[in-house]
Amino acid sequence: MKKTDAPILKYSAEGCSAKIEKFLLRPPVERGADKIAADVLAEIKKHGDSAVVKFARQFDRSPVTLATMRVTKAEIASAKKTVDAGFKKAAKEAHKRIAEFAIAGLREDWRMPAPQGGWLGEKFVALDRVGAYIPGGAAPLASTALMTLTLAEVAGVPERVACTPATADGTVNPYVLFALDLAGATEIYKVGGIQAVGAMAYGTKTIKKVQKIVGPGGPYVTAAKRLVYGEVALDMVAGPSEIAVLADDSANPAHVAADLLSQAEHGTGSEKALLVTPSEKLAKAVRAELEIQSAKLTRQKPVAEVLANGCILVVVPDLGKGIELCNRFAPEHMEVIVKTAERVAEKIYRAGAIFIGPWTPEAVGDFAAGPSHVLPTGGTAAFFSGLTVEDFRRRVSLIHFTKNDLKETVSVVEAFGRVETLDAHARSATIRLD
Question: Nearest-CA neighbor of 376 among 429, 415, 412, 329?
Fold first, then answer.
């Protein structure tokens, strides 16, 4: 049996090795995808539907036409008949939990008094039309349908568009269709990849322009999303999946290995898996488990690639150094499996989501817990946050002054108008008090 390639490395009090540094500095967007994405987007912007169909056939390898691009009610009804009862029950439970978490996260409109009788505040208004990208290639992500559009529905967005690639026979995976319908999609299109992003960002005769695009994708989808930023709003720029596990000798090595492999199997081969532990014994036991468990998985090839190139096991002198390393990595998914898990988790401040304790595998976040699994990757958790219900609403500032409030602030307006040579600004205030 081939030994796993995942190396055990040391992170000393002085810092880390070149191998660890290289692992930490992964690019948030894979190189080489931008040029292709830019060319495809330019053609979609110019030619609209015809270009979308052309690239759907070329890249999705589906027989989609303008007449068949939009999923029909009959196709949704057929999917509902195809999907097994067990999945329907699981999807409904997940949807309920996601919706409950989203409802709890909604911010209330608020006001505060201004000093002279007026008031200030904020109101939160749903976007009008949003688009969700749902991957449907090697892994048809039915869960992503729930983790995106459920939030949009709770936020009150009236038009909720989904794009997902069709298969070679022109159909969409029935489990994805069932989940999209359950999540409240109002329009579903059989388009994937760059062409889906372009259609939603620029708009065509068939697919009307959206205000915001959310959802994860492969390197080309990620590149396309970044290139259309400004035409539309985005949730984040998200790349290949990643996980970090901070564990001490209380952790079960079989559980830790299973969690690392849960992200390695996604299929791009660029996923990242990091174990950080003060226990060299645990690191060796986890490496042995990676070998045993990976041999039993369905997706042998991509898992092997990640174990060879994207997985390291790091031994640190103490948990403090482990926390430091994890914060430097800023992972999409961060598991904390130590004796004082809650206390240690408080010190992790760079992560898309934190999974606390031995009974919280990352997979519950992917499918069942409630928070969206659309999370920042590639180190961008240092400055991006995961998708929430508030990403589907606009925040609007409210200002209502009385005459006395204006009197109290007019000198401030005049001072800034003078310094910034914007005398019309100043006059718009002073003229009211003349």
Answer: 329
Q: How far apart are CA 357 and CA 269, in angstroms?
A: 28
Positions marked active-site: 332-333
Q: Please indicate, yes or no, whether the overall pTM of this predicted structure exceeds 0.90.
A: yes
- Does residue 2 have a pLDDT over 80? no
CATH numeric code, 33-111+124-234: 3.40.50.1980
Do the beta carbons of residue 213 and residue 350 sit within 8 Å? no
The count of other CB atoms within 10 Å of the CB of residue 407 is 14
Residue 245 confidence (pLDDT): 98
Kindly tell me the sign of the dihedral angle through the C-alpha atoms of 194, 197, 198, 204. positive
Cα separation, 392 vs 271, in Å, equals 28
For the stretch 326-342, pLDDT in tens is 999 999 999 999 999 99
Per CATH, which fold does 8-28+240-369 belong to?
Rossmann fold (3.40.50)
Average pLDDT over residues 76-103: 97
Helix axes 85-105, 174-183, angle to 10 degrees: 30
More confident residue, 239 or 247: 247
* Fold equal for 8-28+240-369 and 33-111+124-234: yes
Mean pLDDT of 405-414: 97
Pairing of strands 159-163, 110-113: unpaired
User: CA–CA separation, 134 vs 213, rounded Å?
Assistant: 11
C-beta pairs of 10-13 under 8 Å, 24+ apart in sequence: 10/314, 10/315, 11/276, 11/314, 11/315, 11/316, 11/317, 11/321, 11/322, 11/325, 12/317, 13/317, 13/321
- Domains of the chain, residue spans: 8-28+240-369, 33-111+124-234, 401-433
- Which residues are CB-neighbours of 305 under 8 A, at least 6 positions away? 269
Residue 1's pLDDT is 37
21-46 pLDDT, tens digit per residue, is 888 988 766 677 889 999 999 999 99
* Burial class of residue 49, CB neighbours in 10 A (0-12, 13-18, 19+): middle
Query: How far is 276 from 10, CA to CA, in rounded Å?
Result: 10
Q: Counting beta carbons within 10 angstroms of the beta carbon of residue 86, is it exposed (0 to 12), middle (13 to 18) or buried (19 or more)?
A: exposed
Tokens encoding 329: 């990595």
Checking if the pLDDT of 392 tops 90, the result is yes
